[in-house]
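Suppose a colleague, Dr. K., hands you the sequence of a protein chain of 496 amino acids and asks what its three-dimensional shape might be. Before reaching for any lab equipment, you can write down a predicted structure in token form. Begin with the sequence itself:
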Amino acid sequence: MINPGFSEPQRQSPLGIAILFLSVLGNLLRNFGVVLVIIFFRENTGYKQLMLSGILLLALLFAIGIAYLRYRKFTFFINSDTNEFILTKGIINTSQTNIEKRKIQEVIISQPFFHKVLGIYQVEIDSPGTDKKDLKIEAVSYETAQELREMLVVAKADPEFVSDSFDAAETISKPVSEFKISPLSLMKWGFTSDYIYSIFALIGIVFYLFDKLNDFFMDQIETAFDEEMWQEYLLFSNVLIVAAVILFFCTAVFINALRKIITYWDTRVQWENKRVRVSYGLFNSREAVINPDKVQQFISTQNILQKKINIGGLKITQIGEDEFDQNTSTIIPACNNEEREKLQSFFFGTEVTFQETVRMVKFRLVSRLLVWAVAGSGIVGFVLYFFEIPVYFLLFYTIFVSILVALKFINSRLYFGEKFMKERSGIWDVDEKVSRIQDTQMIEVSQYFWQRKRGIGSVNVYTAGGSISQGSSKMKTLKKWVNYIVYQTEIRNWNT
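The predicted structure, expressed as tokens, is then:
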């Protein structure tokens, strides 16, 4: 029996008109903002002020009108006869989207900043083959959002869940188990993750600033300095460069940590109704439900510092989600090893074990060192000479790149077991991606012509939520496990 609240078409909360108004007004400013800037900076006359005021007034009236019409024309309900969720929208051209409840992948409840001010929530419905933007309810109450999610996700997963005495509030407020990420753990995670990318950007900035400052001082004071003063200047400028690198690095780490703390503030993980609910956010709140049957990849990320303090990040991808898109996959920050193992056992239903480890051959390390450290040093040396940058930067590059190549080789491994496979990869932040063998959708084995004599090749195992891959490994071992995965997948297809 469908809850009466969704058996008939209903509209969003009236407060949603304000959100729709801001959305329309923002689009107008993005499209016509250049025109307003040109008018504003023209000669200051009374006619110009009158025209600018008129344009702004018309834009406000237009945005209010469009927002109200979009609110009136937007409806959603659950058809009890066809067991479909139906969403209708549009002003002039009306569109209707019908989705069978069994095909709905996930329902995400979020609360961006302006929604939080107004006390309303946003609902995104994810279904394979559809765009979340097309299946978004902009403004509903929290109770309505939760009730709708219960009906679309939980009820279809557990038929016994739906009864004549269905009470959404009762199903929402009884988590079986939960844990909360403390602010201290979040700070530790924020200050020790994802800043390797900032280092590369800052190195580029330092090179650029050095070139510009060097040109300026060379033109201004070269003739005024004697040899001794010139040597002191060069020494002082090098000290400034080192200080600038340290300052930029510290600033990048602080900004990155602050961004993560704000984004994942008050993270809570709750077990309820055979699923996991994850919620977080300070200014922009987000709440997602993870169904263990739909989990495709369980990705844990940890670096050396985080390993010492027993902390790391988790990412869970479900069917149809992109492992590289943080807006689709679910992030659980600052988990310790115990919490990670608890979640992994819950999602996969058993202990994750492996029987064989596949490593890349040493030839891979030698070839990459030749490319990046040796050949790369020649290119970088030419650039440094062209821009008249001190030669010690070349030594720094060679050592730095050699360390990165070595770390990537050491951390690259592939694990196979009876039920699971895992890819370990990374340089500083090491990712471990675990997937079920039964979730395999496609396998790709490749081998370059120069790899045939050495008996090495590459493999890519694709699931509906990402891939597991490794290159330059022994082909005999890879083929053995590829055949096993294909066999297990075929058995599963025959049984279903």
